[in-house]
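User: Structure please.
Assistant: Input sequence and predicted structure:
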Amino acid sequence: MKGNHSAALRALYIILVPVVLLIILLNSGWLQRLLPAATVHGETYSVVRYNFYYFDYYNSFLEQYEDQLDELGYDPEQADSDQIRDDGLSWKEFFRREAEANLAETAYYCDLAQAADYTFSEEELAPVAEQLAKNEAQRAQYGISSNNYYISYYGAGMNEERYVQELTRKVQAQAYKAHLEAAYTPAPAEVAQWRAEHPEADYQAVHLRVITLEALPDRATGEIGSAQLDALSAKLERLVARYESGVDFAQLQA
């Protein structure tokens, strides 16, 4: 019995030790920094980098719609995977899709900027410092350390250095996208094609003519009160009645 008991304990240790080590590694963020989560344009993103885009969108969503969450049907206290949106997606899937769209867009414009050897100005990179200042104010408000702040908001393995790296890429991507949009001039053929694909609706031309009426100030005080406004209203009613009776508009203007 003693031998069987020892064998059972050894088996238990063999099972438990790897599990405990896995929990420690997950909590430390070490595995999240190494495990691949996505590949975009040939570049592999670790779990930590992927989480930046997931929680960046998630945190922005909560901040933007703080007073409308009930209307949107989202409860932060419940599991995202258990809450289904009107479009049939779970909220977890919705957040995941939005995060991956932002990640892909960031990678795309960063690659374009790098290929063009584009140099970002201080003004274009200013949002990085602005966001860090906002984070610092929030961290100080809650009285938590920098490491705990980024872990709390962006998951295990995240720290300020890794956060700044991805935030800078995101800001650069947005800046380069704005640069391309401002500098782009479509070719005439492209304009013609777009117009052909987006025909304008037929609108009737309108010839607008205006008559402006002003209230006359009181002769004694020079002020405009309720009596003057009532007189203006009565004058307008008489003018409308004359127009509806068929008096020519040019005559009414005169």
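The mean pLDDT is 80.
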